[in-house]
Specification:
heterotrimer; A mainly alpha; B mainly alpha; C alpha+beta; A: mainly alpha; 15 helices; B: mainly alpha; MetI-like fold; 14 helices; 70% helix; 0% strand
């Protein structure tokens, strides 16, 4: 009796009951402050690029890079796309855009296909020297490209593909192979081995099993490979500048030529518009693919 | 004699492209590069061997020494900041926060963009006459100085800032997936034992994340050795030669200055550096005995 | 229909010998079960018969043809896997006809055979579904069908029922047996489940350490295990083993426990003349022990009973004999007092005696 009363009075005071009242702790606040500052650091450059690209040169010269444009204009974007100049060529960044597209499509398709085939052969078939081949392939993924470049230039010149579309596509295949092989090798090795055995008992040959059984099952890893290759090849600068040749310079190279050209007045608004345009394709891939992009990073964490 | 079943010819046919690439594009070119570095080649490769003369000349070239120093500074700066920032961001995102997806997307998007774009964006922001410095001066602090991009002894740190902006999201993503892989019951156990969260992170989580940390360090190290486009777009190696890096040095001497003997010697040095970083890790990661039993 | 003959087979993975000097003759139409604990080499043997891995030495003959180096498809075999291994992106029809398409069988013939297999296995309504839309039992039926359509002589089963729940496993077991009766094909079946082995097999090959320990009918394996391993592996709950020595007195064999107790072995058929004083192990199955004396030829065994485990139809009583753990299976309705010390009875003719050192049956 006595106990019951005391409990009742206590409950009226501070005895906990029901859901815990939501309290905002200092740690929680600190957490969000940190996240907000980090987000600011990552977003600011993009914000500056966007507002700059919408300003007139006159407004830019005032020197307030963080302000919103007083009179937004899309003129710099049109100029960047259509008539920005590299040296004496004033064809705009669209030239580089279409070059990059023409480089991208065959490079992505071929590098994924060859990578899938190599990964399949290395993971499911017993091939003598497979481990050695794979080890050297991996090494190729990590070594600095400078080691390969000069002899490759000589080889390309000899067989006549230096400075051509073929040359740059072949280069992307060569240096995409390690990562692609790794992705597909790991993927196929993770499939139940009994599937492969069943297909062997059913009389499937090497290519029959590859085309009829393995490729149709590879959709997830092909998506990951596509994400990695599209962004990787689009963002390439080094190979483009060396191997693609004057006629096929990819967008990144042309962008750098436009922005860092020493001739004439610097049109910062046009430069920023061109820069955003160049970043657009990988950004679209990034925002559309979402979690797949992260998966790609994790799967092919060897990307250098 | 052990009996062997006929080998499947098709599997060897399928490996022909990979084989050609490995033999010619990787091994062949690598050996050729090393070979040229021992000759007196200038514009074209020659067969006149001069021992290690090119290497002596290389290390007597101040531009190369500066490049190497810059690589070390950039490497230490980038790796340290990326690891700390990446881990903090990942740990923060792992606290069941609101808008986790939004934050993650924001932290990682620079990684999707090229170094050229990164470099040009930061070049513009740090522009001494129209960028951040001028903005702050306009606010009233007329003596404010943030013109590292045109300072000889500061330019390389600008490269670090841009590099961190681009790559710390990658570390965050790797760390986050590492943190998500930690057994939730470990947290419950620590909570019941009354261990403060920061202690759990420091004494339990970080040691458990060792493989992720190693992977991040290796990936970042490779980016450091390869860094080229970022410098081209951001500083062009300048002012002067103050932000030169080895990769740029090599390409300049290969194509601009037509001194392929010196350039290949520099490549070979880079090669050795990478091999020293990478070989133990590669072995550990892919060829440990228990993992070797993949498929057949 | 074909015989399978494995001659002096040896398989190594690196330095590890998984199978050594293995001989096995399987008759036409026989259902043979390879039984053993995991890692004993039974699956390796099956994969070798299928041609899915290279042998290091020896020969494999199927249907009077040396197929040691033949491709799997040329061996006249069909195989059913534990994980079913159905091709995920194909319908059931696609799964069944893939092998036939590979062999360039005419379309009409493929349709005929698929229809027949579907009828035998009663999977006609499932033909247009994908594997993901099937239950475990249905998947396994399709997997069996895949072997069936190819009109093979020899069926290989690699733990086909292990992934199914207990009820389905029993159902499919009966169905497999019926299938074997109907087709009359040779079947080689790998399992670690002794119930499957005992119910399905014409003969069981009990394997351990890459060696066939005993090859005999289920009855024989159960009644007269050739060594201690077979005796301990087959039977559930496991056979009781009591260590001691043989004692031959006046031409009568007895078994001396460590505490000196003598157990009469009259009626036990020794494989060889027993020697007096030889260290040995006496093996008696829990179900061969009686707590109430009934038979005339029984001999006595002093047992301490400590714990009773009722399991429905019968109960298991745990205790010890001269310090060694011991179990007795009794009728579910019977009752014993625990703890208690009683005399139990068993028939020496049903028991087994093994050499203590080698484990071989005496």
């Amino acid at each position: 009796m006595l106990q019951a009363t005391s409990r009742a009075t206590a409950a009226n005071a501070v005895e906990p009951s029901g859901p815990r009242p939501r309290s905002v702790t200092a740690g929680r606040v600190g957490l969000y402050v940190f996240l907000a500052f980090a987000a600011l650091f990552f977003l600011l450059p993009m914000y500056v690029m966007i507002v700059t690209s919408l300003k007139t040169m006159g407004e830019i010269r005032i020197g307030n890079i963080f302000s919103l444009p007083t009179e937004a204009t899309i003129e710099p974007w049109i100029q960047a796309w259509n008539s920005a100049c590299t040296g004496l060529n004033c064809g705009g960044i669209k030239v580089g855009f279409w070059n990059s597209v023409r480089i991208l499509i065959p490079s992505v398709i071929l590098s994924i296909f060859i990578g899938a085939l190599t990964g399949y052969a290395l993971s499911l078939w017993r091939v003598r020297g497979a481990n050695l081949l794979f080890a050297v392939l991996l090494l190729g993924a990590f070594l600095p490209y400078q080691v390969f470049i000069y002899p490759l230039v000589r080889i390309y010149s000899t067989i006549g593909i230096y400075g051509t579309m073929t040359g740059i596509v072949v280069t992307h295949i060569i240096f995409g192979l390690p990562l692609m092989t790794l992705l597909f090798r790991n993927y196929y090795a993770s499939l139940p081995i009994e599937l492969f055995k069943a297909a062997r008992v059913d009389g499937g040959g090497f290519f029959q099993i590859f085309f009829r059984l393995m490729l149709p099952m590879s959709t997830p890893i092909v998506i990951v490979a596509c994400i990695l290759q599209v962004t990787g090849i689009w963002n390439d600068f080094l190979f483009g500048v060396i191997f693609a040749g004057r006629e096929n310079l990819p967008m990144t190279v042309q962008l750098n030529n436009i922005v860092n050209s020493t001739q004439g007045e610097k049109l910062y608004n046009v430069n920023m518009a061109a820069t955003i345009l160049t970043a657009l394709v990988p950004l679209v891939v990034y925002f559309i693919s979402g979690r797949w992009f992260v998966r790609g990073i994790a799967a092919g964490a060897v990307k250098g | 004699m052990k009996p062997r079943r006929r080998k499947n010819v098709a599997s060897y046919v399928a490996l022909i492209p990979a084989f050609i690439i490995v033999v010619f594009a990787y091994l062949g070119t690598m050996l050729w590069t090393v070979q040229i570095s021992f000759t007196d080649s200038k514009l074209l490769p020659s067969m006149n061997f001069i021992g290690i003369r090119q290497y002596e000349r290389l290390f007597a070239t101040s531009r190369w020494i500066i490049s190497l120093e810059n690589m070390v500074i950039f490497g230490i700066g980038l790796i340290l900041v990326c690891l700390v920032l990446g881990f903090l961001m990942a740990a923060a995102l792992d606290q069941k926060i609101r808008f986790e997806n939004t934050f993650r997307t924001i932290f990682l998007y620079p990684y999707a963009m090229s170094f050229i774009v990164t470099g040009l964006a930061w070049q513009w922001i740090l522009n001494p006459t129209l960028g951040v410095q001028q903005y702050v001066r306009n606010l009233g602090w007329t003596n404010f100085q943030f013109d590292w991009i045109v300072q000889n002894d500061r330019a390389i740190y600008v490269v670090i800032i841009a590099g961190v902006w681009q790559a710390s999201g990658l570390v965050m993503a790797l760390m986050l997936s590492g943190l998500r892989g930690i057994d939730q019951e470990l947290w419950k156990a620590a909570q019941i034992d009354g261990i403060p969260a920061w202690r759990v992170y420091l004494n339990i989580v970080v040691p458990m994340m060792r493989p992720t940390i190693i992977t991040s360090v290796v990936l970042l190290s490779l980016a450091v050795v390869r860094v080229y486009d970022l410098v081209i777009a951001l500083t062009g190696g300048g002012p002067g030669i103050s932000s030169e890096v080895p990769a740029k040095f090599i390409l300049d001497y290969l194509f601009g200055r037509s001194n392929i003997g010196l350039a290949t010697a520099a490549s070979s040095v880079l090669l050795v550096i990478v091999l020293v970083i990478i070989t133990p890790w590669l072995y550990y990661e892919y060829f440990r005995p228990e993992r070797a039993k993949g498929g057949k | 229909m074909a015989t399978v003959s494995i001659r002096d087979l040896e398989i190594e993975f690196g330095n590890l010998k998984v199978l050594r000097n293995l001989d096995l003759e399987i008759e036409q139409g026989e259902f043979i079960v390879l039984l053993g604990p995991s890692g004993c080499g039974k699956s390796t043997l099956l994969n070798a018969v299928a041609g899915l891995l290279d042998v290091s030495a020896g020969q494999i003959w199927i249907g009077g043809k040396n197929v040691t180096w033949e491709e799997p498809k040329d061996r006249g075999i069909g195989m059913v896997f534990q994980s079913y291994a159905l091709y995920p992106r194909m319908t059931v029809t696609g799964n069944l006809s893939f092998g036939l398409q590979m062999a360039k069988t005419p379309k009409a013939e493929i349709e005929k055979r698929v229809a027949r297999a579907a009828e035998i296995l009663q999977i006609q309504p499932l033909l247009n579904r994908r594997p993901a839309e099937l239950s475990g039992g249905q998947r396994q039926r399709v997997a069996i069908g895949r072997a069936l359509v190819r009109d093979v002589d020899v069926f290989l089963f690699d733990e086909p029922l292990s992934n199914l729940d207990a009820k389905l496993r029993t159902e499919l077991r009966v169905e497999l047996k019926r299938l074997h009766q109907g087709l009359g094909s040779t079947m080689i079946y790998v399992t670690h489940d002794q119930i499957e082995a005992l119910t399905l097999a014409d003969r069981i090959a009990v394997m351990n350490g890459g060696v066939i320990q005993q090859l005999a009918s289920p009855k024989e394996i159960y009644r007269r295990p050739l060594n201690r391993f077979v005796a301990g592996f087959v039977g559930s709950p496991s056979m009781n083993f009591i260590d001691g020595t043989l004692a031959i007195e006046e031409g009568r064999a007895a078994f001396a426990l460590k505490d000196g107790t003598r157990i009469d072995l009259t009626g036990y058929e020794f494989d060889a003349r027993p020697e007096h004083g030889r260290p040995a192990t006496l093996g008696i199955r829990p179900e061969q022990i009686d707590l109430e004396k009934r038979e005339a030829e029984s001999s006595t065994l002093p047992v301490n009973l400590t714990l009773m485990e009722p399991m429905g139809a019968d109960s298991l009583v745990w205790g010890d004999v001269a310090g060694t753990q011991f179990s007795v299976r009794i009728d579910g309705d019977a009752h014993v007092d625990t703890p208690s010390s009683v005399d139990a009875w068993f028939q020496p003719a049903q028991a087994s005696v093994f050499d203590l050192a080698t484990g071989a049956r005496l």
